[in-house]
């Protein structure tokens, strides 16, 4: 975030609130970290190479003019503009152009859209990075033939089947540092009535097939019904922990969905969990959510 020091002093709390929202993983984790840099100060030549930049000024400043020269669209007065590859390759610069004396008000009017833009860009980056090895479309076809459902996982995922339980796992490069796992199973016929505790009990049965024993901590859970591709579903986001009798602590987030598929008379459990000690987890949560969103069942 680049602007004159007096302006930063005035708006910094609002910028932090808008651009550093938190999500719950095993703690409240910031989705982004904002670093302020005074333009043309001591470390400017290095910090201006950040991949994501936010510049706020009147357009008279030399550093604003350098960025505005890279704007592809026509500049028609105050507003928000985007420039690329200004000071480094692959860089994206969001520019808030404001009338003199109105920089704070102009910035405030755009903070919400800036956050949505940054988040969308990051999500696209995280998904593209996950599928860098390619989408395993052949596996998706196999799953439809064998299990009558589909899931689109990256080629690096390993999978196995235990009766009607399908397990997909990526523990590269080292399972002590990073594990992402998804499970899919179902019950038929669709239960006439089911409660969140029934889903958690079902999930506990499935977790017995994981290599890591897991208890679910619901103290900060986010749960409720959702509509998933026109289907009724129930989603639970919570935290798993190792049972206390084990000698080594481990924990991570879970994202679990119970999805109804009336054409098959099945209720599916689509469960995912993450183990990433000492790492920021937002990227991996986006990736797990994307894989869960790729779930398909029924004739469509």
Please characterize this protein's 3D structure.
- With 300 residues, this protein is of the alpha+beta class.
- Helix content is 30%, strand content 31%.
- It has seven helices and 14 strands.
- The protein has helices at residues 5-19, 44-47, 62-68, 103-130, 137-147, 196-207, 282-293; strands at residues 22-24, 28-30, 52-57, 79-84, 92-97, 149-150, 158-162, 165-170, 179-187, 215-228, 231-241, 251-261, 266-275, 296-297.
- The strands form four sheets. Strands 7-8-9-13-12-11-10 form a seven-stranded antiparallel beta sheet, with helices on both faces. The protein has a three-stranded mixed beta sheet with strand order 3-5-4, sandwiched between helices.
- Helix 4 packs across helix 7 (282-293).
- It is elongated and about 70 Å long.
- The relative contact order is 0.12.
- Globally, the shape reads elongated
Query: How many strands appear in the DSSP assignment?
Result: 14
Instruction: Output the helix-strand order.
Output: HEEHEHEEHHEEEEHEEEEHE
- Placed side by side, the strands forming the largest sheet appear as 7-8-9-13-12-11-10
Biggest sheet features: 7 strands, antiparallel
Helix content range: 25-40%
Count, helices: 7
Distance between the termini: 46 Å
Unreliable parts: none
> How confident overall, as mean pLDDT?
94
The Cα radius of gyration reads 23 Å
Please state the structural category. alpha+beta
Strand content: 25-35%
């Amino acid at each position: 975030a680049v602007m004159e020091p007096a302006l930063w002093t005035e708006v910094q709390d609002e910028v932090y609130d808008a651009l550093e929202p938190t999500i719950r993983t095993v703690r409240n984790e910031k989705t982004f970290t904002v670093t302020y840099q005074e333009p043309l100060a001591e470390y400017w030549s290095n910090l201006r190479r950040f991949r994501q930049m936010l510049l706020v000024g009147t357009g008279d400043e030399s550093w604003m003019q350098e960025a505005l020269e890279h704007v592809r669209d026509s500049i028609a007065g105050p507003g928000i503009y985007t420039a690329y590859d200004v000071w480094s390759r692959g860089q994206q610069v969001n520019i808030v152009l404001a009338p003199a004396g109105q920089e704070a008000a102009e910035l405030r009017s755009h903070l919400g859209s800036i956050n949505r833009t940054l988040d969308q860009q990051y999500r696209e980056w995280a998904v593209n990075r996950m599928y860098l090895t390619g989408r395993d479309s052949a596996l998706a076809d196999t799953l439809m033939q064998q299990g009558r459902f589909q899931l689109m996982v990256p080629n690096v995922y390993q999978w196995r089947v235990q009766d009607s339980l399908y397990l997909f796992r990526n523990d590269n490069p080292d399972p002590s540092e990073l594990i992402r796992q998804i499970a899919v199973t179902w019950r038929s016929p669709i239960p006439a009535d089911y409660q969140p505790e029934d889903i958690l009990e079902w999930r506990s049965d499935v977790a017995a097939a994981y290599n890591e024993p897991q208890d679910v901590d619901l103290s900060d859970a986010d749960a409720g019904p959702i509509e998933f591709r026109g289907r009724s579903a129930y989603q639970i986001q919570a935290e798993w922990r190792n049972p206390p009798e084990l000698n080594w602590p481990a924990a991570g987030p879970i994202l679990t969905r119970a999805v109804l598929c009336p054409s098959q008379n099945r209720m599916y459990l689509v469960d995912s969990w993450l183990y990433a000690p000492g790492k920021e987890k937002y990227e991996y949560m986006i990736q797990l959510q994307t894989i869960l969103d790729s779930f398909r069942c029924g004739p469509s």
